[in-house]
Specification:
27% helix, 31% strand, Rossmann fold, OB fold (Dihydrolipoamide Acetyltransferase, E2P)
Length: 460
């Protein structure tokens, strides 16, 4: 059954196999173009907003259909040639076929539309997205999947919404030293120490530092590696540019990328990064931003807000990335993080920068710590609460504690526009109002957008 776009006025019944000509008006964060037919939304990978395409319906649900692209009929002027040979197969990137300036505009629209739809704010002003000078080779961390079904084992990333592995021999999104490591691993995967390590490996996690040019690698296995010290030392010799090798094991689940235990095999387990004069020692397991250039731009954007110094609560503080930035500008910082390893790194990095007298860190869930006397007191004496939660956003008890303490300002940094909007709706209903909404392109070529929101308590 075939239908043209001009005939799609409710007459066509969508069934698997139906062919349609559709106009696409939007794109989702996962890369699916959005069209409409017979009163239903139709999702399809490939088309961009402003394009017309012939598609074939693959599945039909109650409220939407999913289609496969047959051919593009009209192309958007914003379409560009993807620069990665596995784009469209690998699930790591979703927007390489969209020009970078158009990506930045789209991400601003995502933030604005999500705030309107979920938070219920129609008149909020959203700044233009701050992006990168060159939106490639930016990721300082990569997690490779080892596909041991292949002989020799293949290395790659998962396919979109799948556990099938797309084999690669390089990645133009990761830092140059990590891309070089991928190439060496792929060429050596059938021999020597690399071949021995891959026999039992599930994931390879590497992190690089822009300042030092060093990288460290973690080999994740279900149980401790056999002949670990020997294999680690040999790996360090076979992989130029690596400063250290470690083994992670004791997995929390079948799909865990890193184990709960780590053992240094050779070299060192940490490397040093420098950002805006601050020194950070980081490992593959560190809670640290993957894009140093954009992190610097967030620092620069926030810096004018830091005068005069005051007290601040840094909730979900990770390894203290922002805590130390605030402390260096004279602020008194109380940081909360539930991951003990991250808190230990935060404390060590504070000592490394001579800022230990200005910071205090507690280990625990944010909602629990803010309910205890120490956390409640920190809220009451703070001028600002800085929130940088995981993708799921804040626990409602966290937001209730902030509103209950009537903290003058909330600075909320989010990697998910939907959970951000949900949380801001609560704060708005409890007396807060927008001052600034600023998107940042922490993850170029992907559907993810980082957003910094500054809010003020209306009675302050």
């Amino acid at each position: 059954m075939t239908s043209s776009g001009t005939a799609l006025k409710g007459a066509t019944i969508l069934r698997p196999g139906t062919e349609l000509e559709l106009d696409f008006t939007d794109i989702l964060a996962n890369g699916q173009g959005v069209g409409r037919a017979s009163g239903m939304v139709v999702f399809c990978f490939g088309p961009l907003p402003g394009e017309r395409a012939r598609v074939r319906v693959a599945t039909v649900k109650q409220r939407y259909a999913v289609a496969d692209l047959i051919a593009l009929l009209e192309e958007s002027p914003a379409r560009v040639l993807p620069f990665c040979p596995v784009f469209g197969e690998c699930g790591g990137c979703q927007l390489q076929h969209l020009a970078y300036d158009a990506q930045l505009r789209w991400k601003r629209d995502v933030v604005r539309n999500t705030l309107t739809r979920i938070a219920g704010v129609a008149a909020v002003s959203v700044n233009e997205t701050i992006g990168m000078r060159e939106p490639r080779a930016y990721r300082n961390k990569m997690s490779l999947v080892v596909d041991r079904r292949a002989k020799p084992p293949a290395l790659g990333f998962y396919r979109q919404r799948s556990h099938d592995v797309v084999a690669i021999d390089g990645c133009p999104i990761v830092a140059p030293q990590l891309d070089a490591t991928i190439g060496t691993l792929v060429r050596s995967r059938s021999r020597g120490a690399v071949g021995r390590a891959l026999r039992d490996a599930r994931h390879l996690v590497a992190r690089a530092a822009r300042a030092s040019g060093e990288a460290v690698l973690t080999v994740t296995t279900a149980v401790p590696m056999n002949d670990a010290a020997e294999v680690g030392s040999a790996l360090l010799g076979e992989l130029p540019g690596l400063a250290g090798i470690e083994n992670s094991f004791d997995l929390s689940g079948e799909n865990a990328i890193l184990g709960r235990q780590h053992r240094l095999l050779a070299g060192k387990g940490e490397i040093e990064e420098t950002i805006c004069g601050l020194r950070y020692r980081i490992s593959p397991a560190s809670f640290f931003q993957v894009n140093v250039e954009i992190l610097e731009r967030i620092f620069a954007f926030v810096e004018p807000w830091l005068q005069p110094p005051a007290a601040i609560v840094d909730a979900y503080c990770g390894a203290g990335t922002f805590s130390l930035f605030f402390a260096r500008h004279g602020w008194s910082v109380y940081g909360i993080e539930e991951n003990r390893h991250a808190v230990a790194e935060a404390q060590e990095n504070a000592r490394l920068n001579g800022l230990q007298e200005r910071v205090a860190f507690d280990t625990g869930r944010v909602e629990r710590m803010l309910a205890l006397p120490r956390g409640a007191q920190a809220l009451r004496r703070s001028r600002v609460v800085f929130l940088d939660p995981p993708r799921k956003g804040c626990d409602p008890a966290v937001l209730a504690a902030i509103a209950g303490a009537a903290v003058a300002h909330v600075w909320y940094l989010s990697c998910d526009a939907a959970t951000l909007a949900r949380d801001l709706k609560f704060l708005i209903s409890n007396g807060y109002r927008f001052e600034t909404v600023q998107p940042f392109d922490m993850f170029p070529q992907t559907g993810h957008v980082e957003t910094l929101v500054r809010m003020e308590y209306a009675a302050s």
